[in-house]
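A further point concerns the way the authors explain their paired sequence and structure data. The central task, working out the C-alpha cells from the amino acid sequence alone, is never made concrete. I therefore recommend that a typical entry be quoted early in the introduction. An entry of this sort, consisting of the sequence and the corresponding C-alpha cells, reads as follows:
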Amino acid sequence: MEVRHRHAFKDQDRQAAVSHNSFGHLFRVTTWGESHGPAIGCVVDGCPPGIPLTEADIQTWLDLRRPGQGKFVTQRQEPDAVRILSGTFEDERVKARFGGPVTTGTPISLMIDNVDQRSRDYADIAEAFRPGHADYAYFAKYGVRDYRGGGRQSARETACRVAAGAIARKVIPSVTVRAALVQIGPHAIDRAQWDWDETRRNPFWCPDAAVVAVWEAHLETVRKAGSSTGAIIEVEATGVPAGWGAPIYGKLDAELAAALMSINAAKGVEIGAGFAAAALSGEDNADEMRVGNDGPVFLSNQAGGVLGGISTGQSVVARVAFKPTSSILSARRSINESGAEIEVRTRGRHDPCVGIRAAPVVEAMTACVLADAFLRHRGQMGA
C-alpha cells in the first residue's frame, strides 16, 4: 500500500528532543516522568520564600484527582503520595515562627511514585497507532515513543500539575479557584440550580444535583458499550484584583487559554460568554458599570473578568471542552509503524469520560497562571 508522508515510517536520525515541558514565567513549572515509569514529578521555580508548605498541603489536592475512586473512572490504584525533595526548610526558629517548614525561594522538587502500572495491557499496540491518540504524531516527530499507557502523553502527567497548583494557591491565598463539571455528552446542567457545595457531594463535581442521575445513566450505557463521551468543565477564580495581566502579548485570558488547552484531551476553551458572545448584541455583551463602595460594580460578566488582557476585578471565568476518551474497546481502523492497515482495540484501564477527573487539573492550571500573573504584576508595579 502507499502511505502518505511515508518518511515518517523510515528509520532516520532525528535531532528533535521532547522539549517544552515547562510553563509559566516567574512562577514556572517543569513536569517530568511517564505513565509507566518509576515515578512522575515536577519542579516549581519562582515560588517566593517564607510560605508555609508541607506535603499534606499538596496531598489534599492530589487526593481529589487520583484514580480508582469510582466505577466511572479508571481503576488504576495510585495513592499519588507526594514527596517534597527540595525547596523547603525547617529548624526550631522557623517552626516557632511559622509552625512548620516554609519555602526558601529555591526550586521546589516534587516526586510521586507510580505503583500500579500494568504495561502488559499495551503489548498489542506497541507498533500500532491508536486513532485519536498522539501515537502517530509522536512517532512522526521523534521516531520513538513509549506506548505503555501513552508514556509522556498520558493524563497521568496531570498529577504533577495538580501538585504545582497546590503551591500556586499558597502564592495567592486571597484568590479562590474552583471548578465544576457542567456537561457530560449531550447532557448539560440547569444553571439556575447551580450550587457550589453540591460539587463536593457527588462523584462528578456537578453543581446541579438533579442531573447527576442522568449522567450516571448515560455513563453506564457508555461504559457497557466500551465507548467514551466528552465533557465541559467550568472554572471560576474569585478574589482576583483589577490589574493582573498585560496587554497585547501577555494577556491574562490568552495565557489562561493556553494553559487550559495544554491539558490532555482539551479541544476548546472559552472565556466568559465565549462563543455565545457571537449571538449577543453589543448592548447585551457590554458589561455595564455603576459606582460601588469599593470601586466599580459590574452589572454582568460577559467578559469573564478580563478586558484588554487585564483582569477587571470580577470573577475570572473560563470553560474547557474535553473530547471523548480516545482509548475505547470498539475496533477502529488505523495503521502501524510498518505502514500496514490494521484494526485497533485499546485494552487497559481508562476513564469513559476524562472530564470526571479534570476539574482538579483545570483548577490547578488556573491557579498556576494566576500566581504567575500576580508575581509579574508585583514585579512591574511594585504592589
Observations:
- The radius of gyration is 22 Å.
- The chain has eight helices and 18 strands.
